Amino acid sequence: MIPTARPTLRALVVAIAALASLLPTAAAQQRTLTLDDIYDPDKKVDFEGNFPRGLAWIDDAHYLWPKTDAQARTTEMLTVEALTGKAEPLFDVARVEATLGTLEGVTPDEAKRIARQRSFTFNGKRTAILFTIRDDLYLYDLPTHRAARLTHSPGQKEEASLSPDDSRAAFVRGNNLYVVDVATKRERALTSDGSPDVLNGKLDWVYQEEIYGRGTFRAYWWSPDSRRIAFLQLGEKAVPRYSIVDDIPYHPEPEVYPYPKAGDPNPAVRLGVVPSTGGAPRWIDTSRYGREHLICDVSWTPDSRHVVFQVQDREQTWLDLDFAGGDEPLRTVIKETSKAWVDDPGSPRWLKDGTFLWSSDRTGFRHIYHYRADGTLIRQVTDGKWEARTVHGVDESAGWVYFSGTERSPIGGDVYRVHLDGRGLQRLSAAGGTHNASFNPSFSHYIDTWSDATTPTQVRLHRADGTEARMIDDNPVKALADYRLSKPELLQVKARDGFVMEALLLKPPDFDPAKKYPVYQQTYAGPHAQSVRDAWGGTNSMYNQLLAQKGIVVWICDNRTASGKGVESTWPAYLRLGETELQDIEDGLAWLESQGFVDASRIGINGWSYGGFMVSYALTHSRTFAMGIAGGTVSDWRNYDTIYTERYMRTPEHNPEGYRRTSPRWSAKDLHGELLLMHGAIDDNVHPQNTMQLAHELQKAAKPFRMMLYPKSRHGVSEPALVKHLRATMLEFTERTLLR
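Above: the chain sequence. Below: its structure as tokens.
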């Protein structure tokens, strides 16, 4: 058994109090949820609480708290003494605002917005801030409250950052990479061939969405010594364009951007290295990989001698970890392979002796490995049928590796440490649920953001051994006691072949086992994307409570490929998205029906994105469902982007029958049950084209359905009034089809 920290008396008291908040008083039991309580922009109730978010360590004794005023939409940066909680402003925001207001052309409202924004680009010591104002860069010195204008050139400055030694700032303008010297204000172009078809230091849509992470567009990396910059160049000329139109203005302007659909050409990628003082880029020779490769991660060795990067084939069946430096030939130190696809392992984590830690799924579960710089494996550090998901770092003086993983439960997340030689694994987090840790630089303390299925998020400070040092915020959400809420039940259900699936069951508050209830299943179902988690669901979980109060059993059951039980559990989806998922969904519902309280003629299913695909697929390949709500659906995998789709399906050329068989569009004639299609009208991720194509096939097959489009909405509907409308539409459809 793995040793674990014991909960403190205070932690137990807080947990009991949180649980009690879900068991309301007799008076509160008379109050039921309404859509206004959950989604009305002016009347909605806070079911999340106001716990501190975005905490980041400044040094061993202090962390940064971006304290946000949600109503005023402003943020104050506070420095907090970790052990005492004593807080003070990191800088005088009023003085920064006043100083910015003196700059030419800056209005008072603009100065307020800039000074009180939610995130800042600081220098390493947090004594200066890099601002972008009216398409130019300014460096604001906090001790003297002086703003120095760094650039005087036309054109938008994108993805600006400071060098590690704070001597230069880099940015992208017109798809070229530039630097400006902080002392001399001299601006230099590091590339000159940027154009709409050539992106230097900036990612396109598919690379940011599927490889480097949604919202991450920066594609350049400073060397630790600040002397060089590695950057990606993406060639978009061969990539087909996609157009979306916002129809709300009188004269719409089409939004046109490169979007490679499955089988289309990907952007051509090159990795360059350029001196930060200027000069011709040196292009790293990756010709051994041909033209159809992806560059998936870029970093540097700590001594700045080598660029470290990862290369995958187009269909992502293997991954190479490569080193390149100076005139040395390209050197591959690790090659990962798989019976299906290889997932992103993250960057190497370097130790002082020149060795590094590496994450790999090679056993079917993600674990930590210790390597020498030449690629020689020293040892596997963690092992077992669970995942070491996040490596926080290494306390090299004590020999501990700190990480988060799922040894206790695949639906939670705990904080662990283990000796570098693989001995002495310890679970540091005492309570079950989901823990997210942030360690200080010396690994003497960590901030733990925790919740479970019945407890809103709480934040604590812990010592390195897991013992609690201070409650930062117990985040009481008093409104919960005012409502008649059901307690979610976390269950395990076996599929037909014995695979154990995780499930969550929410019964009506006045549940009577002698009655027959309709069922509303919520699903996502995509590979390694869990819906069942032992974590606080917040506002959206209140919608499920609303359904339960109306007499509907809410059921969430993760099919095996979405279970989080190692990458091996996802492989059955390979080349056949939807097929295994539907079998598991039906097996989960069969178990639920066997409990005796389910009306099998009134089962509904809802999902968005991959979940929307799953709903569309289920209603065209099964007779289990009376209704389905498919939001942002993929109706044909030929419509979705290359990198995501080909990872799981290979190219259409290599798997034509798989694409045809798994696309709901081509099975529209087999629709069974009532279907509501929903889509954002300017969705740049899963294009509205998917819903239109499915609607067309349904119409040709004389199949009735309902459809709702949301103008000015992308892949998620976010405008508060439209969110309420969306939920009201879903609720009306659900009541009409399941409560008949």
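Residues 720-738 form the longest helix (19 residues).
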